[in-house]
Amino acid sequence: MTIAAREITLPADWRDFWALTKPRVMSLVVFTALCGLLAAPGEIHPILAFTAILCIATGAGASGALNQWYEAELDAKMKRTAGRPLPDGRMERESALHFGIGLAAFSVGIMGVAVNWLSAGILAFSIFFYAVVYTMWLKPNTPQNIVIGGAAGAFPPVIGWAAVTGDLTLLPLLMFAIIFFWTPPHFWSLALFMKSDYGAAGIPMLPNVSGQRVTRNQIFGYSFVLAAIAVAPWYLGMTGAIYGVTTVALNAVFLGLAFAVWRNETTEAQMMKAEKRLFGYSVLYLFILFAALAFDRMLLV
């Protein structure tokens, strides 16, 4: 049943609006932004630091709300997303649209006035990129949606850095690149065991368009690129031994799990244990990697 066929029978409450912000995704956004802020040289007043992180979180929530507003009918076709407020009939689409626009305007405006306009500008572009470039253009039209669209989730540490320094250097760009190249193996491992769900919604994810063998090859290849970029801050002397040891260990495990995905030949979702392990580990990988980077930088600067 699509959202157009379902009556709005339940009044939306605060939990539905909270669900629009995609809280689990927001937690990763907030964490990487905080790591970018802590890794930056210089000082920022604690109140301004809190304001910056709050604005980044609010901007991420705006992106999630606008994404769900636009994809309400697609979400209704997928088991994983059918229980969201819009496809489940608990909220009008216009409410989600107004909520998303309001959060976006608030987050960018406060960031610019209270922190600096460079960080506000990057935040505004990240919301636009996710809501318009990724959601409306890339996702429904190309199996490379995750590759290009990965930029949307890679902006938070850059924004956190810019909030402190008011400029950009090589390290925040490397932090951006880590998330950018982490995104394909992370989401394509999910897409392998959620292939039927994406197919039902007509979303051209790589396994549906090019097949599972191509997807596994791509996951393995991107994992090597990710490992090389993740090691770069240590190799270039931007971090110390704490990050160096951590990144080598984390990437060794990541490559091992990616190799298991590459070797797997099963086409049954319930048997794709290697893909599920890589997907689960990839989240832990990013949290630990960025925590180590921030902690190491705090000891150096």
UniProtKB/TrEMBL annotation:
Q: Which residue windows are transmembrane per the record?
A: 25-41, 47-70, 96-114, 120-138, 145-164, 170-193, 219-236, 242-262, 278-295
Does the record carry Repeat as a key word?
no
- Location within or outside the cell: Cell membrane
Instruction: Tell me which UniProt keywords the record has, alphabetically.
Output: Cell membrane, Heme biosynthesis, Membrane, Transferase, Transmembrane, Transmembrane helix
Enzyme Commission identifier(s)? 2.5.1.141
Membrane topology of the entry: Multi-pass membrane protein
In what pathway does it function? Answer: Porphyrin-containing compound metabolism; heme O biosynthesis; heme O from protoheme: step 1/1
Q: Supply one GO BP term.
A: heme O biosynthetic process
Matching Pfam families: UbiA
Q: What is its main location?
A: membrane
How would you classify this enzyme at the top EC level?
A: transferase
PROSITE patterns for the chain: UBIA
Q: Does the keyword Hydrolase apply?
A: no
Highest taxon listed in the record's lineage: Bacteria
- What does UniProt give as GO cellular component? plasma membrane
Classification via HAMAP family: CyoE_CtaB (MF_00154)
Sum up the protein's function in the record's words: Converts heme B (protoheme IX) to heme O by substitution of the vinyl group on carbon 2 of heme B porphyrin ring with a hydroxyethyl farnesyl side group.
Q: What else is known?
A: Carbon 2 of the heme B porphyrin ring is defined according to the Fischer nomenclature.
- What family does the Swiss-Prot or TrEMBL record give for this protein? Belongs to the UbiA prenyltransferase family. Protoheme IX farnesyltransferase subfamily.
The protein depicted here goes by the name Protoheme IX farnesyltransferase
Which species is listed as the source?
A: Sphingorhabdus pulchriflava
Its organism's taxonomic lineage begins at:
Bacteria, Pseudomonadati, Pseudomonadota, Alphaproteobacteria, Sphingomonadales
> What is the gene name?
ctaB
